[in-house]
Amino acid sequence: MPEWLSLNPVLLAVTGIASVSVLISILIANRAMKRVRVLETHIDELGTELNAMTHSTLGMGRKLHQLTESQDTMLRALEQIQKNDPAKVSYSEASKLVAMGADIEQLMNACGISRPEAELVTALAKKKSGQRDVEKDVPVLNTKV
Fold first, then answer.
1. Are the beta carbons of 138 and 118 closer than 8 angstroms?
2. Range(s) of the domain holding residue 103
3. What burial letters (b/e) apply to 10-30, b meaning 16+ CB within 10 Å?
4. Residue 138 located in a structural domain
5. To the nearest 10°, the Cα dihedral for 110, 79, 125, 102?
6. 44-99, pLDDT tens digit by residue?
7. Within 13 Å of residue 94, how many CA atoms lie on the same side as its CB?
8. What's the CA gap between 93 and 107, in Å, rounded?
9. Is there a domain that residue 14 lies in?
10. How far apart are CA 91 and CA 110, in angstroms?
11. Domain count, the chain
12. pLDDT (tens digit per residue) in 115-132
């Protein structure tokens, strides 16, 4: 009888089971390594996408900041324009000149307004102060509904 058959049958069975277990472990390890490589590839792709999204978000943040600054600048400019509205200045200045006794021609020259505007400012200022222009009353349009 060959010598390897004379070995203990339990020892042979354990050796066989251990060999099969090692082969199965090697197969499982190979599959796990393939999965690890696939997952590493996915992680790299996700990292690249995250990097691109981060750069995009930072760019949009910078653009939003620029737009906000631009809007603030425009709002300040609009406020300055509204504060220095020549039409408002002219009419308020014209009212003051009428109160000081300026006539229609002087209002037109000093404030840069048209004759009808000067006549209207004069009539309104005099009506407000209770005076009436004896030379020329400006007609008032009365509408009844």
1. no
2. 85-129
3. eeeeeeeeeeeeeeeeeeeee
4. no
5. -10
6. 999 999 999 999 999 999 999 999 999 999 999 888 877 776 656 567 788 888 88
7. 29
8. 9
9. yes
10. 11
11. 2
12. 888 888 888 888 877 655
> Cα dihedral angle (3, 5, 9, 13), rounded to 10 degrees?
100
* Kind plus residue range of the DSSP H or E element containing 36: helix 9-83
CB under 8 Å to 110, separation ≥6 — which residues?
93, 94, 97, 102
pLDDT at 134 over 50: no
3-state secondary structure (DSSP) of residue 138: coil
Between 52 and 113, the more confident residue is: 52
> Do residues 52 and 114 share a domain?
no
Looking at the structure, tell me whether residues 78 and 92 fall in a common domain.
no
Q: Is residue 144 part of a domain?
A: no
**Same domain for 74 and 120:** no
